[in-house]
């Protein structure tokens, strides 16, 4: 794929004719491959297969290994490179376009799952760590592209709904991925590593996601129902992108988002390794992941409705969303504190099993379920705020890349905190504090930077942009 080759100019077209042509393109009845919804659904399935399965793998605690040491080091390497390429990913996406960027990113997930298959047989820790570092590069590319698609393609007034659609499909990957170790390791109640078939199944799903990435359309070929295109900006240059990425560190909007970005993956280490990995048997931790990622589907749908439909004013909807997430977050982490006080030394005498532990299983299970609910609502809220800051995919890819870069830096620190056997109560307190600090700063960002433009106004503004630079006709899938 050449730079800028995915959307050429058809020639000089009168503005009125171009406007009429774009309106006709967006009025097709039924299924339309170049619609924003279809593209968001497609990137949802890409993430279903790749990071969705990765989440299921990580959610077992230690990547499915009894000894968490290799997984902790691999995740530290992963999130260190992810922090760098998360920041650079938006610029790379703007230069290469979606297909090549997403394909390169997805392919690294297959290698990572394969490294654990190799580790199961040969205990080659350096290979797992190297695969983690390579995955960090790929994940930075994938998530920058995903963020641009999810926030720039939808119409302005329905971004919360589209985020919920994406998040639900993506987390269905975690649900299916959680069923894989649950089924394949059902009769293994003792503390063992998962079998080879578990990793092979993950690799198959990830390979499908890598192929699906090639079906994503560039922004200038995506047409909304009103005829406006998702973006009319041509592919950028490397020097331009590097300069724009550097400016993000002085952008007050991004600075207000720093605590939320840092917190948004920081808690995974605590939840996966020190709640699900410590309290439950192997098969039960797999079952818990089914419900953890299922809770994310419910959480994203709920907060998506709040952010799109709760009030007429977009700014007020943002405030309501922050209040809802803050309330749930306080309740969830408060419950987590009560649970953590039962095993402050990090040791749990008898692991809980969904069939054998009876009522003792219910409380910790509901806590883990609520953590999944909160994760989806918190991250969907942040993505909605990012999407409300701009409309073009170039800017939003950089904003999303900045968010993922900072998020990954926090996660890299978190995995090393766990490796150093830090006491669990301080880990919980830090996680709770980080999310709590985020809420007033997000509210300030909404107050200062989110406007109350109507969806039609945003669409009209973009439509004017597209009229001056018409591009290739929409692609229909027959």
Automatic annotation (TrEMBL):
InterPro entries in alphabetical order: Ion_channel_UNC-93, MFS_trans_sf, UNC-93-like_regulator
Region (Disordered) residue spans: 1-28, 456-478
Cellular compartments per GO CC: membrane
TM regions (residue ranges): 37-57, 77-95, 102-121, 127-149, 161-184, 199-219, 252-270, 290-307, 319-338, 365-390, 429-450
Keywords of this entry: Membrane, Transmembrane, Transmembrane helix
Bias kind Gly residues: ranges: 1-10
Highest taxon of the lineage: Eukaryota
Recorded topology in the membrane: Multi-pass membrane protein
Protein name: UNC93-like protein 2
Localization (cell): Membrane
């Amino acid at each position: 794929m050449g730079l800028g080759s995915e959307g050429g100019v058809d020639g000089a077209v009168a503005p009125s004719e171009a406007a009429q042509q774009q309106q006709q393109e967006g009025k097709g009845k039924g299924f339309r491959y170049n619609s924003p919804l279809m593209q968001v659904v497609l990137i949802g399935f890409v993430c279903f297969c790749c990071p969705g399965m990765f989440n299921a793998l990580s959610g077992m605690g230690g990547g499915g290994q009894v000894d968490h040491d290799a997984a902790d080091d691999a995740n530290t390497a992963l999130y260190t490179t992810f922090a760098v390429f998360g920041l650079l990913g938006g610029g790379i996406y703007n230069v290469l376009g979606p297909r090549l960027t997403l394909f390169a990113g997805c392919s690294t997930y297959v290698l990572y799952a394969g490294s654990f298959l190799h580790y199961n047989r040969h205990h080659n820790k350096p290979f797992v760590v190297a695969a983690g570092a390579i995955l960090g590069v790929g994940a930075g590319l994938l998530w920058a592209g995903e963020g641009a698609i999810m926030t720039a393609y939808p119409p302005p007034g329905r971004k919360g709904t589209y985020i919920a659609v994406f998040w639900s499909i993506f987390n269905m990957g975690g649900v299916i991925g959680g069923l894989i170790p649950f089924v394949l390791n059902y009769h293994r109640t003792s503390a063992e590593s998962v079998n080879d078939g578990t990793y092979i199944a993950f690799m198959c799903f990830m390979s499908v996601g890598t192929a699906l990435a090639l079906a994503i359309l560039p922004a200038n070929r995506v047409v909304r129902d009103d005829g406006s295109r998702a973006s009319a900006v041509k592919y950028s240059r490397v020097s331009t992108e590097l300069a724009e990425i550097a400016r993000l560190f002085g952008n007050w909007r991004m600075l207000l988002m720093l605590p939320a970005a840092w917190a948004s993956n920081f808690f995974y280490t605590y939840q996966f390794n020190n709640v699900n990995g410590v309290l439950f048997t192997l098969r039960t931790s797999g079952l818990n992941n089914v419900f953890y990622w299922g809770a994310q589907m419910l959480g994203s749908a709920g907060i998506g409705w709040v952010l799109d439909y709760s009030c007429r004013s977009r700014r007020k909807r943002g405030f309501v969303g922050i209040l809802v997430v803050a309330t749930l977050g306080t309740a969830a982490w408060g419950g987590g504190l009560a649970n953590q006080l039962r095993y402050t030394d990090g040791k749990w005498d008898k692991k809980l099993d969904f069939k054998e532990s009876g009522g003792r299983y219910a409380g910790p299970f509901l806590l883990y379920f609520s953590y999944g609910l909160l994760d989806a609502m918190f991250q969907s809220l942040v993505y909605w705020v990012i999407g409300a800051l701009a409309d073009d995919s170039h800017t939003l890819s950089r904003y999303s890349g900045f968010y993922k870069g900072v998020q990954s830096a926090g996660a890299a620190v978190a995995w090393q905190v766990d490796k150093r056997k830090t006491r669990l109560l301080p880990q919980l307190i830090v996680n709770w504090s980080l999310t709590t600090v985020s809420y007033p700063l997000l509210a300030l960002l909404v107050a200062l930077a989110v406007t109350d433009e109507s969806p039609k106004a945003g669409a009209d503004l973009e439509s004017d942009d597209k009229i001056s630079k018409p591009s290739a006709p929409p692609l229909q899938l027959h």
